[in-house]
Amino acid sequence: MSNQAVEVEILGKHTLVNCPAGQEESLINAAKRLDERLKEMAAKTKITNEVQLLTFVALNFCHELDARDSDSKQEQDALSERMEQLSASLDNAISKVKPGQQ
After folding, report:
1. Residue 62 in contact with residue 70, Cβ under 8 Å?
2. CA 75 – CA 100 distance, rounded (Å)
3. pTM summary value
4. Coil, strand, or helix at residue 25?
5. Contact status, residue 49 vs residue 38, Cβ threshold 8 Å
6. Residue partners of 21: CB distance under 8 A and separation at least 6
């Protein structure tokens, strides 16, 4: 797959970003989301330094991803435990069936 340059706007600045073919819309949406978050953070905190603003928003995004990863892991662990319980329950039921019985 080849890359192509896509123009995005973040904090009023236009930037060309290389993007795999077919992912342009996703990149544009990500840039819009980032821009919205930066503007929200700037309004809440009154931070005007773009580097600080980008740092805080990046930290917030990373925190949200970590929280989602943790939630996902807990859900996976609960699902695995439930599957083990069901497997044990099935094994128990099967062991009670006499050979030749259906």
Report:
1. no
2. 39
3. 0.67
4. helix
5. no
6. 1, 2, 3, 4
For the record, the structure tokens of 77 come out as 């662990």
The answer to whether 45 and 60 have CB atoms below 8 angstroms apart is no
Structure tokens at 87: 């497997």
Reading the chain (102 residues) residue by residue, the pLDDT tens digits are 688 999 999 999 999 999 999 999 999 999 999 999 999 999 999 999 999 999 999 999 999 999 998 888 888 888 999 999 999 899 888 888 877 766
Q: What are phi and psi of 7, to 5 degrees?
A: -90, 130
- Residue found by looking up tokens 């990500």 in the block: 30
Distance in angstroms (rounded) separating the CA atoms of residues 58 and 66:
12
Structure tokens at 5: 């340059």
